[in-house]
Design a protein that fits this description.
With about 300 residues, the protein is an alpha/beta fold. The chain has nine helices and eleven strands. The termini are far apart.
Length: about 300
């Protein structure tokens, strides 16, 4: 019998012990029904001890070390380029796999009934074993406007948010997008689309790819009968201002790529002139002036990078 093959790509940037825990969790995971061809770690110039002793964790690893931080999308593409498998799994270093984390989604995709499924994500649990809200809608201008005004915090507007916070994630279903923390995709499909768009340094790369996958007629599925642990913000929480900057930057790039010119420029002005007021206000209420400083610093970085953003 010819079993399907899988390559796991993990992009690391100063993930510390989280990376080792992630790699160690791969070894005992069920390999029933498929062959794990490679586990590839692409390190974006980490300065911590993330890579120490990874060869002692019971998993054969291919390591790619970048001399500088090339961003998430580029690093994912680097890893994918080393794979010839049937499936690619992009896995965050702040995840840990369980027994059925790999076998269940691959079995699902191998079914003759699911040949039109291009991407699969699974149920993710936080440190308290709560089911995380990990799926999202395809973003629109109205969704970004609702979030910019802070209305997404009100129950009446939860259906107009990017993240599907109102849905308990308790059933298998079609979704617009699964989170990039556990992102299983057919390699042939990934290659046909040219991989992740490397203009997105981090954030929105999986949003963009999921949208392009849907335009080809493939579905994205959230699978509730398989689980993994996901810490969330495992490494990016180290740099809150940078995290906000890259999120806003990628959002603007997404708008100019997929929206009409009017919508893209409307999103640009909403992001630059309207949203800072609500973000700073909520930052002060949440964490005081120190939290607001992170927000303001993120916006200053965005303003400083506008020439580069608009050149794309």
């Amino acid at each position: 019998m010819n079993y399907p093959t899988l390559t796991i790509v993990i992009v690391n940037w100063n993930a510390g012990n989280l990376l080792r825990e992630c790699i160690a969790s791969i070894a005992p995971t069920s390999k029933e029904g498929f062959i794990l061809s490679k586990v590839i770690i692409v390190d974006n110039a980490s300065s911590d001890n993330s890579l120490s002793d990874i060869e002692k964790l019971g998993v054969s690893v291919t390591l790619i070390q970048n001399s500088e931080n090339n961003g998430f999308a580029t690093a994912c593409n680097q890893g994918a380029a080393e794979s010839t498998s049937d499936y690619l799994l992009f896995l965050n270093p702040d995840t840990r796999l369980f027994e059925d984390s790999l076998s269940s989604p691959i079995t699902f995709m191998q079914s003759s009934k699911n040949t039109d499924v291009g991407i699969v994500g699974i149920q993710l649990l936080d440190e308290n074993d709560n089911v995380a809200r990990s799926c999202s809608r395809t973003p629109s201008l109205i969704i970004f406007l609702v979030q910019a005004l802070g209305f997404n915090r009100l129950p009446k507007f939860r259906h107009l948010t990017h993240s599907m916070q109102e849905w308990p994630h308790d059933k298998t279903r079609d979704v617009d997008q699964v989170i990039g923390a556990f992102f299983l995709i057919r390699q042939s499909l990934f290659e046909s689309l040219g991989g992740f768009d490397q203009r997105f340094f981090v954030y929105f790369e999986e949003v963009d790819l999921s949208y392009r996958v849907s335009k080809l007629g493939y579905r994205s599925i959230y699978l509730s009968n398989a689980q993994a642990f996901h810490a969330g913000c495992g490494t990016s929480d180290q740099v809150k201002a940078h995290r906000l900057f890259f999120s806003l930057r990628s959002r603007i790039l997404y708008g100019f790529k997929h929206f009409t010119p009017f919508q893209a420029w409307a999103l640009f002005f909403i992001t630059l002139f309207l949203e800072p007021l609500t973000r700073v206000t909520f930052s002060v209420l949440k964490g005081g002036w120190r939290e607001a400083q992170h927000t303001l610093r993120g916006y200053m970085m965005l303003i400083g990078d506008l020439r580069n953003i608009l050149s794309h």
